[in-house]
Write a structure and sequence with these properties.
Layout (H helix, E strand, L loop, with lengths): L2 H21 L3 H16 L10 H25 L11
């Protein structure tokens, strides 16, 4: 990779970071995912790598999706149950 390409990708990542901070909330997850894919394909060079490295990288994204999904299920399914007070 040429130094100009590295700087260009870094500038693109900074613009995506500004977009992520500006929009916030749930849509920011998609921008963060795009940033992770950009880093994986360019700086980690997974696009040209042969062997098991791309498989392990995909496995890592798979397990992260499962962990975030399970972590999001806990607060989404937790409900407060109001109990009646009994007076004797």
């Amino acid at each position: 990779m040429t130094p100009l390409a590295i700087i260009g990708i870094w500038v693109l990542l900074m613009l995506l970071l500004a977009l992520e901070v500006f929009i916030g909330g749930a849509p920011a997850v998609a921008v963060g995912g795009a940033m992770a894919i950009l880093v994986a394909l360019t700086y980690m060079r997974l696009w040209r790598t042969k062997g098991v490295a791309p498989a392990f990288a995909l496995g890592a994204f798979f397990w992260l999706a499962i962990l975030f999904g399970l972590g999001g299920m806990d607060p989404a399914t937790r409900h407060d149950v109001l109990l009646q007070q009994t007076t004797h």
